[in-house]
Amino acid sequence: MDGFTRYAIFYAPPPGRLADFGAAWLGWDPRAGRRLAHPVLPGLPMPVAEITGTPRKYGFHGTLKPPFRLKPGFDVAELHNATEALASSLAPVLLDGLTLSQLDSFLALMPEGDTVQLALLAARIVETLDGFRAAPEEAELARRRAPGLTPRQEVLLQQWGYPYVMEEFRFHLTLSGPLLAEDAQEIAARLEPVVEPLLPRPFRIREICLFGEGQDGMFHHLHRYTLSG
Question: pTM here?
Answer without folding.
Answer: 0.96
